[in-house]
């Protein structure tokens, strides 16, 4: 009998000190001793009248509860007030819940401190005027629309909103604010408290690629320089392209910059130091020159075969060694220009790779199922954004008839029809995910011949 893990109501908590949201699974799906360390620390802080982890939505402190027999753990509110949105499903939309979480992150100690650092830096620069902290800005073009930027100031007649970003999610909130400020002629600058190019969070990437590959940091060091120089100083982090053989390597550079070192792109509502888009376009053009075209792809067939053998083999490697080897393969994919993120960024779901290799080899790989149709059900439930690529490959590897023959109940056929209808109606749950198309085409070449169609291929 399968032990079902109950769905956690509190799927995300907020570290009240750092302002960084943490997935419940990150803290609770670990060794029992690690979970108990979290549980005991929370209890100790409760006795001391202190807080550490709170519900990311309602900000009530949480504690660890669970069922030790089934080894399942979850967070519960320390005090049940009854009004938390996660306990009243349907009253709030996901967009509203994300906005509530985002607002909660703004109340963390780290957020409040960084806001003060920005204020001190701007006060030091006499070119800024009308400085306001947590002050409502009413829309100039839409009635009853307003936002409350962390810090707002005017520089040479241009209103600039400085928004702090310490959380790891809420891309919809980020884009909504960017659009609001753009409509109102306000330049938006996202400020981070720290940045490490070796470990980039999704939110940092969301801001990075929306801001010409530039990120800005304000910290104690930049504040000191701002006060000493009488000029608002930030740390600019940006990507610089470099030709390496027949590939483009992405390098990170960082420097302290003042307002005179920045470009103000009012049309795109961006503020950046280094024009990465122009640099990457120039570098790509260089690669097209005849003398640059070589045999960089000669070894890619071997890479494809080596990775496939690694993935489908019954590995005797322990978990750490397996991930180390996978990381090296991912680095080679990135060097070949097949993926953008490093190993610690977004990767292809392991289950999706298992499902596609199962198609190719005609046997179940990486799943404990007896029938292949069970694998297909997993794809339809968990990887809907990749359904088109998956079903094209099912046809390419001539597995559709085999799959249909196992669908004795007809449940899969009904799912396929529902998926087709949803795609025709552009339902967001079935939105096409082409983020890894280059890698999928490389690993599974038949996919290249089927990338023209948008609807789910007919069976």
Automatic annotation (TrEMBL):
InterPro entries: DUF6035 (IPR046099), DUF7829 (IPR057151), DUF7830 (IPR057152)
All copies of domain DUF7830, residue ranges: 21-90
Domain DUF6035: 102-275
Domain of life from the UniProt record: Bacteria
Domain DUF7829: 350-430
Protein name listed in UniProt: Competence protein
UniProt source species: Georgfuchsia toluolica
Upper lineage: Bacteria, Pseudomonadati, Pseudomonadota, Betaproteobacteria, Nitrosomonadales
